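Discrete fold record:
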Amino acid sequence: MPFKPSATFRYTAMRLGIFAGSFLVMWALVYFRVVPAGLGGSNFFWVALLALIVSAPLSFVLLRKQRDEMAVQVSERVDRAKARLAANQSQEDGV
């Protein structure tokens, strides 16, 4: 049986990958002065902020399928937990 990571893990890993790629692109744009650099020693934080701003809409569009898979997986877990809770409550009521 091959290992298949959970939908949440895959989504998170892909989201981090998109952020890392955006960070590298923003770093290159700041380095080559296409985008203005941060003030003083804040260059790292400026690049991180730019990467967050760029990666958020990219993740929203590119990871729609993974987000839907994750939502289904989470809802199934919630349904199972609700069923177990209802079963436990009915056992307690019977006693």
About this structure: The longest helix spans residues 64-94. The radius of gyration is 22 Å. The chain has three helices and no strands.
